[in-house]
Write a structure and sequence with these properties.
Blueprint (H helix, E strand, L loop, with lengths): L7 E2 L5 H17 L9 E2 L2 E2 L2 E9 L5 E9 L9 E6 L11 E2 L16
Antiparallel strand pairs: 1-7, 2-3, 4-5, 5-6
């Protein structure tokens, strides 16, 4: 059985993070929302925040991940924006990623019927 972490974070030094930021730049350009070359920092101020990566079921039934980026107030729309970027083909969280899923609870003793 495959264990699927429901929420993970990728460190900024991870190659998948670089790929996710590149995907974010491409998506912003396609939506007409690009405001510069670096979507994460501008003049020392945070613009796009990477929050988490979560699994989703693709149309063909496979489980893949999407990376979630959020902007508190985008300068073009003046709204909060959240964009999901698909992970690289075949990418799966590895030991370099941090799981945010709650830890499994300890197994409780089996219940017995009492009459």
């Amino acid at each position: 059985m495959l264990c699927i972490p429901t929420q993970i974070q990728i460190p900024t030094s991870h190659p998948e993070f670089v790929s996710a930021v590149r995907g974010l730049l491409e998506r912003l350009a396609s939506l007409g929302l690009a405001t510069g070359n670096d979507p994460v920092q501008a003049n020392g101020k945070t613009r796009w925040l990477y929050y988490v990566s979560i699994p989703y079921r693709a149309d063909d039934g496979t489980i893949e991940y999407r990376h979630m980026f959020h902007h508190p107030m985008h300068p073009v729309t003046s709204d909060r924006l959240t964009i999901f970027i698909p992970a690289s083909d075949g990418w799966w969280p590895d030991a370099g990623c941090r799981s945010l899923s709650p830890p499994r609870s300890k197994r409780q003793a089996d219940l017995r019927l009492v009459s």
